[in-house]
## 1
Amino acid sequence: MVSLKRLVCAAVAMLAMSTLARAEEGFPFGTEMTLEALPQAGSKRIPNIEIGDNGEVVLELWCKGGKGQFSVAGNTVIFVPGQIQDRSCPPAKAQADDELVAALGSVETWKRQGEVLTLVGPKPLRFRVNGN
């Protein structure tokens, strides 16, 4: 016969695991992520975003850099770009940066599966959590 103590311990363990799983699937505030993309010709750089605890964002793009803000409610997300630094970028990289910022600005929803955040809009963007 299973003791009451074992049942309670099992229930607490299951609750803790389900809470942890939900936390891992939440919006990745306080996380640095890299875009799933290949580097551009002549560069090893791939865009990344650092999302603060309150949704503030630091962007490092193909060449440009800047800031922005995510606002999240449920699975709805809005990205508002802030000041973007030009950094005397070559035209192709500047255009790619502008297109990426525009794509971020047009996202509507998000989903997360483990270490991957997908921002869904006219052009879906996939970001992977950076490892330590």
Note: Residues 4-23 have pLDDT under 50 and may be disordered.
## 2
Amino acid sequence: MPKRKAAAPNRAFKVADQIQRDLTELIARELKDPRVGMVTIQAVEVTPDYAHAKIYFSLLVGDPVVTTEALNQGAGFLRNGLFKRLQIHTVPTLHFLFDRTTERAADMNALIAQAVASRSKEE
């Protein structure tokens, strides 16, 4: 018996992209939690069965631990907002995770600049 081909191989990526766009708007306009500051959604990973979604975010100002807690507490409200916007059968359970990529990139840039400065002093 031949294997059944997936209906849309990029569908998970499209759903994740749409979730990212909708969550950005929902957090900015409808989430009224003072603990959530200026949040940027960096990436969304959706499981193949669309049951769970990991939402990676970064902050401009604020405490990452408090913001993560606030977003995870508001996940039900945000999921309900997604349910109204998305045209899929199963809206995933949202899990918010703080993304330290931008911090690490800034640290690496500082180290590189320091190494270049010390090298130019030696020459």
Note: Helices lie at 11-29, 64-73, 75-85, 101-122.
